[in-house]
Amino acid sequence: MATLQSTADQAWRQCYPNPSDETAVSKEEFIATAKSEWAYQTLMMAYNEMQRDGYFEPPSYLLSETELTIENNEADISKLKTFKSLPQDVLLVKIGWVDLSCDCNYIKSTANLSQLLCDDDSLDDAAKTYYVLGKKIKFPKGTHSKNLVLTYANMGEKIGEKIEVDDAIAALIRTRLLEIYLGKIAPQDTTNNTTSVA
To answer: What pTM was estimated for this model as a whole?
Structure first.
């Protein structure tokens, strides 16, 4: 599997075969653009999969687990680097007890649906709803425990710049980087004296 950094590096070296301190676009700029393209291409993959299969599951290589502390029926997720580009909060894959017991179910909702279904009794008594509001997860019907495990799609924060990407998406990112930057680069200065080529 490719990494985002190696993909950006390949494109940068194709644009700048002989880089110097006067290179117009830094490798760091390429990596920053690659991150944006990665989020966009993953979003497009999600939309395509939703259209084809009717649902989308984030790839397993993006998933992380963390333990949430529940206070006043809400959990703070402001410190998590979640993959915010994914639609309809699919970045939140699962919420459950610390021991991952199946005795309780947490069902994803929205603020509006929670309000509409406030008196709905069709859910099992063990089921609890939750929804995201800004940087918090709200539990309008409370929780079974003060500690819950959240499985979510991350932005590669645990592996630094070596964010793994699907090879097919890596190819799309590299192509886009070349489209973005290659057409805007001046011809190479073969005189080696920093003058422009006429």
So the answer is: 0.73
102: tokens are: 């199946």
- The candidate with the shortest Cα–Cα distance to 45, out of 33, 28, 62, is 62
- Work out the angle between the directed axes of helices 4-15 and 27-53 (0-180°, nearest 10): 120
Per-residue model confidence as pLDDT tens digits over 88-146: 678 888 888 655 555 678 888 887 776 676 656 567 777 888 888 889 999 988 888 89
The residue to which tokens 């793994």 are assigned? 164
User: Which structure tokens are listed for 131?
Assistant: 């929804």
In which element (H, E) is residue 101 found? none
HSE-CB of 61 using CA atoms within 13 angstroms: 11
Beta strands across the sheet bearing 92-97: 63-69, 147-153, 92-97
